[in-house]
Write a structure and sequence with these properties.
This protein is an all-alpha fold and 125 residues long. The chain is built from five helices and no strands. It is flat and about 60 Å long.
Length: 125
């Protein structure tokens, strides 16, 4: 947790510190929750989760540890995938694309197809 001048001033005023930490917790928690909901959908779900953890890590040591753990796991996965053959990397990319497509189709089926989706899209009507 970074200790800047303004943060030390907040910590010195006990009447402000608890509401500030609560606010950071609520905002960070909401960002993480939105990210978790967005993970199976096309888009930056994991990036949103990491952004929420980053917000939480500014005030909470546990979030800083989770963020560091996640960073190490992502680096490990990236390093492993980089050492694999092109066939494995293409297979991972295709499986990822198939999962995202499946999640999108199921989501649109459950929530309804918006009017702006072209008629040729093969979804349930």
């Amino acid at each position: 947790m970074a200790e800047s001048g303004w943060r030390r001033r907040i910590a010195a005023r006990k009447s402000i510190e608890a509401p500030y930490r609560l606010g950071v917790g609520v905002v960070g928690g909401l960002v993480v929750a939105v990210g978790v909901v967005a993970i199976p959908l096309p888009g930056p779900g994991w990036l949103i989760v990491f952004a929420g953890l980053f917000v939480l890590a500014t005030e909470f040591l546990w979030a800083e540890r989770v963020l560091e753990y996640a960073r190490r796991r992502v680096e490990g996965w990236t390093d492993w995938l980089g050492r694999q053959s092109v066939v494995v990397r293409v297979a991972v990319a295709l499986l990822t694309a198939a999962f995202v497509y499946g999640a999108l189709v199921v989501t649109l089926h459950l929530t309804g197809v918006p009017h702006w989706v072209p008629g040729w899209v093969p979804l349930w009507h």
